Amino acid sequence: MNPEDLPTPEAEVDSVSPEALKDRIDAGEDVTLLDTRMQSDYEEWHIDDDTVTTINLPYFHFLEDDIDDDVLEQVPDDREITVLCAKGGASEFVAGALKAR
């Protein structure tokens, strides 16, 4: 399945522009990112900064109705998380799936 073919997110989520995310990072805010791109894409390039915590969990981990506990344990539930991908579709789907839980 291509990220463009993902179903509609289970819950409505807020969108953050790349510029707004960059502004938050440049301002020194603590930011937690959930990068839903493939591991090879993540290893090639990802956002890195002293105030940024990044978790790489490709979108396909979130396709099942019951997301594996091992996956969910990697996603902090005590802070805001910004979910990102290459084009927006996969991150919106994953953010909606997490919010619905």
Task: Tell me what the structure shows.
- This protein has a three-stranded parallel beta sheet with strand order 2-1-3.
- The radius of gyration is 13 Å and the shape is globular.
- The two termini are 23 Å apart.
- It has a single domain (3-100), classed as Rhodanese-like domain (Oxidized Rhodanese, domain 1), CATH 3.40.250.10.
- Helix content is 31%, strand content 13%.
- It is α/β, with parallel strands linked by helices and 101 residues long.
- This is Rhodanese-like domain-containing protein.
The number of E-state strands comes to 3
Shape: globular
CATH H-level superfamily title: Rhodanese-like domain
Strand proportion: 5-15%
Residues in helices, as a percent range: 25-40%
Count of DSSP helices?
A: 4
CATH class: Alpha Beta
Computed CA radius of gyration, to the nearest angstrom: 13 Å
Reported by name, the CATH topology is: Oxidized Rhodanese, domain 1
Helix and strand composition category: alpha/beta
Compute the average pLDDT. Answer: 91
